[in-house]
Amino acid sequence: MHRQLAKILDSIVIYNNIYNYLEGQLKEEVCNGRGMDDEAGVGLLNPYAQTKVGNDTIFGWWARFQEAVASGADAVNGTIGALLEDDGSLAINQVVDAAIRQAPPVEIAAYAPLKGLPAFLDLAVTLALGENRTKLEQLGITTTATATPGGSGALYLAAANFANRGDKVLLRDRHWGPYKGFLNGCGLTYATYPLLPSKDSSIPYVDIAGFNSELEKLCQSQDKVMTWLNDPAHNPTGLSMTAEGRMALLDAIMESASRNENVGHTLLLDAAYHLYADEPHGWAETIAEALDNGMPWPENLLITISVSLSKSHTVYGLRTGALVSLHPDSAVTERIGTVMGVTGRQTWSAAPRIAQYTVSTMHADEQSGAAWAGERDRLRDLLVTRRNALNESCSKLGVPLNPTMDGFFAWIESDDPTALAEACAEQDVYLVPLTGGVRIGLCAVPLSQIPRVAEALANALA
Q1: Within this chain, do residues 284 and 404 fall inside the same structural domain, yes or no?
Q2: Measured between alpha carbons, how far is 328 from 295 in angstroms, rounded to an integer?
Q3: Is residue 39 part of a domain?
Q4: How distant, in Å, are the alpha carbons of 183, 253, 266 from that of 227?
């Protein structure tokens, strides 16, 4: 019991450091008894900087869970977006951890090349495409990759380069909240289409009609359109599209690009959680199948994939990811590689080296690669077991969860998500209210506490 408590407290210390970092500027505002002044710094901050106010919702609710634990409550943590073991400690892929600790000092201390270590860039393409990489290359698809500070860095590269300032980027109406910040910081806004289709749709888990409608609107007003699609293992719902849905959406965007030949089309696949999904490389398989069946790839279409090592290799703090781009014209991918490298240089210089070296070296060895996969499978099984238990418990209690298949989260729609989350918090179950519903962090909830989450939701809804 004492050992489990110690592990939980260790995890709290780790996350508290993150939270304190995010809270730093807000705390400074109340120093010397002075409350936050909306006019403070107006003469120093540009108009966009002045819009940066408040606290991150997810970390705010996680802090409330911490406070409940500190007060002695038997609280349930469904807030944080990191995978925890059932004893509450941070889940770490031990194969990756051991490899990092054995790395030569120079691989820790030295700069990486501006675009990334060549071996890592090659690995990033394989992580994005899986066993379909060879087939896609045989079908004439060329690729480029740029190392980034986590998947967030990859999203920034896309926002900074694939849309014009003032453009709207197309998102599903349920999406990871920080998307808005990446887009706003690059002078962009967004349009949305529904997460789920109407009941009379023949294609599950994707609203093709809504997507087509919003895409066409953007094509009429912009000469570049970009859509961000977090699939599979969507954050915040855990939704994954089917092969039929992927093909329908791919066909829709290729048809739009062919019809609007003067409008550049970019499909960004946010693959942050894909290696925990049942079909981790489903999109690569769908693209290969479409090309193999004769679907033409329009010159004005780019497909790009945001890869993150944070979740798949449990190295959140080492901030390592990549943006992988696909196009049939090598001149296009070469140009994109140059642009992304220059953007990275002008923003963060070079992405951290140590994880690039460690992970690429580890995967180059068949034995250590298999060992990593075994650990990843163990962690994925944690999530599968918890999700199955939540679905079963909610079904028994009549709690209307959204469809959820893969990854770290589950979701329940709500017209008043804050009230729903507050009602759960009164029962010492801490979840995260977001636009349109409440996110359930299955990654953090121990299996033994899953029934409490379902019961708290049932009571709150009642």
Answers
A1: no
A2: 13
A3: no
A4: 12, 10, 6
- Comparing 46-60, 67-81, 192-206, the range with the smallest average pLDDT is 46-60
Kindly list the distances between the CA atom of residue 361 and the CA atoms of 103, 156, 282, 319, in Å, as whole numbers in the listed order: 10, 27, 26, 17
Residue 52 lies in a domain: no
Do 354 and 382 fall within a single domain?
A: no
Whether 167 maps to a domain, the answer reads: yes
Going by pLDDT thresholds of 50, 70 and 90, the confidence category of residue 7 is low
pTM listed for this prediction: 0.90
84 and 148 together in one domain: no
Per the domain annotation, does 360 fall within a domain?
yes
SS3 342: helix
Q: Which two tokens stand for residue 44?
A: 């120093």
Instruction: Write the Ramachandran bin of 84: left for phi over 0, alpha for psi from -120 to 50, otherwise beta.
Output: beta
Q: Residue 225 has which token pair?
A: 């359109």
- Asked if 69 contacts 75 with a C-beta cutoff of 8 angstroms, the reply is yes
User: In angstroms, rounded to a whole number, what is the distance separating the alpha carbons of residues 358 and 108?
Assistant: 10
Statement: residue 10 has pLDDT above 80: no
Residues 209 and 288 placed together within one structural domain of the fold: yes
The boundaries of the domain holding residue 337 are 112-364
Amino acid, res. 433: P
The closest alpha carbon to 143, from 160, 162, 125, belongs to 125
- Which tokens in the block code for residue 276? 């925990």
SS3 content of the chain, % helix, strand, coil (to 5): 50, 15, 35
The residue to which tokens 């890592």 are assigned: 120
Query: pLDDT tier at 43 (50, 70, 90 boundaries)?
Result: confident
State the burial class of residue 288 (Cβ atoms within 10 Å of its Cβ: 0-12, 13-18, 19+). buried
Cα angle for residues 345, 187, 19 (degrees, 5° grid): 70
- Using an 8 Å Cβ cutoff, are 8 and 89 in contact? yes
Pick the last residue of a domain from 364, 389, 413: 364
Number of structural domains, the chain? 2
Q: Where are the beta strands (DSSP E) in 88-160?
A: 142-148
Question: What are the backbone dihedrals phi and psi of residue 224, each rounded to the nearest 5 degrees, phi first?
Answer: -140, 135
Q: How far apart are CA 127 and CA 136, in angstroms?
A: 14
Residue 131, CA distances (Å) to 127, 136, 259, 274 in order: 9, 10, 32, 14
- pLDDT (0 to 100) of residue 2: 47
Same domain, 388 and 289: no
Task: Return the amino acid letter for 282.
Answer: G
